[in-house]
Q: What sequence folds into this?
C-alpha cells in the first residue's frame, strides 16, 4: 500500500525524516479529533499513549510548532541547494549562484567543497547524481562544471493541480476502505469495489482498458449531471449539507512469476 507513495516521495526528494515529521502531526491530529473520550478533551498524555509520539512532540505539534525530535532539514540535497542559493559566498558578481567546477583546489569554490562544507558522511558524487536525477542541476562534462537550474524550482505547469486531485482522490478512497474495515458488522458498507484479473495477454488488457475508459466516462458524466441538478434544486433546502466523491481507476502491470514458476517448479 505504501510502496507507490514512497516511490512518489523519493522521486520528489521527500526524505524519511520529512515524512516522519508529517506522520507525527497526522497521528496527533487524528488521535485528538477521532479518539476523544466522551465528554473529555484529549490530553497530551492520552494522545502520546494512543500514538507513541513523545509527549513533548505532542505539545509542540498542538502549539503549531515542528516536532522537537525530528530533523528540520529536508535532506542533504536540499541543504546543499539552500546554501548554494542563499549564501553570498557561493554567488557570482551578479548575485547569482556560481557555476561550480565539480572539483578544485581546497581554497577555491567547487561542488565537492560545497557538499563537504555541509556533510562529509556522503560522497559529493552521490549528491550530484541525485540532483541530476531530479533535474535540479546540470553537469557539463566538457568543462566538468555544475550549474544550478533556477527554472527547476518552478513547478511544472499543471503539476500542483494534479497533486491536489491525487491527494483528494486517494484520501476519499482510503477513507471509504478504512470506514468499511472499522464499521460494526450491521453497519452499511461504503461503495468500494474493483475488478481484478491475472495472466491476461497485453492485447486483451488493451481492449479492456479502452472499454473501461468508455464506461467510466459515461458513468462520471451521468453522475455529474444528476449531482448538478440536485445542487441547483437544493439551494433552498435547509437539510445539513454533505459532499461526495465517486471515482474510477485502471491499473495494469506485468505479472511477476511466483517463486516456483520462476525456478521452473510445478505450476
A:
Amino acid at each position: 500500500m505504501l510502496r507507490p507513495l514512497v516511490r512518489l516521495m523519493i522521486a520528489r526528494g521527500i526524505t524519511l525524516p520529512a515524512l516522519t515529521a508529517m506522520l507525527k502531526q497526522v497521528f496527533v491530529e487524528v488521535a485528538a479529533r477521532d479518539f476523544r473520550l466522551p465528554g473529555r478533551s484529549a490530553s497530551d498524555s492520552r494522545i502520546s499513549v494512543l500514538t507513541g509520539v513523545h509527549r513533548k512532540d505532542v505539545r509542540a505539534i498542538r502549539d503549531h510548532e515542528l516536532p522537537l525530535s525530528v530533523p528540520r532539514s529536508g535532506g542533504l540535497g536540499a541543504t546543499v541547494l539552500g546554501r548554494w542559493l542563499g549564501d553570498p559566498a557561493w554567488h557570482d558578481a551578479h548575485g547569482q549562484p556560481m557555476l561550480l567546477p565539480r572539483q578544485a583546489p581546497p581554497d577555491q569554490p567547487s561542488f565537492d567543497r560545497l557538499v563537504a562544507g555541509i556533510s562529509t558522511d556522503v560522497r559529493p558524487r552521490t549528491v550530484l547524481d541525485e540532483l541530476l536525477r531530479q533535474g535540479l542541476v546540470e553537469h557539463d562534462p566538457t568543462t566538468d562544471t555544475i550549474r544550478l537550474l533556477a527554472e527547476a524550482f518552478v513547478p511544472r505547469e499543471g503539476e500542483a493541480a494534479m497533486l491536489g486531485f491525487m491527494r483528494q482522490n486517494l484520501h476519499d478512497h482510503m477513507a471509504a476502505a478504512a470506514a468499511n474495515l472499522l464499521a460494526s458488522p450491521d453497519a452499511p458498507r461504503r461503495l468500494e469495489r474493483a475488478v481484478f484479473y491475472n495472466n491476461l495477454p497485453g492485447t486483451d488488457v488493451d481492449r479492456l482498458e479502452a472499454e473501461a475508459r468508455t464506461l467510466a466516462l459515461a458513468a462520471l458524466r451521468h453522475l455529474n449531471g444528476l449531482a448538478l441538478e440536485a445542487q441547483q434544486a437544493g439551494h433552498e433546502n435547509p437539510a445539513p449539507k454533505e459532499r461526495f466523491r465517486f471515482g474510477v481507476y485502471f491499473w495494469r502491470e506485468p505479472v511477476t512469476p511466483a517463486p516456483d514458476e520462476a525456478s521452473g517448479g510445478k505450476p
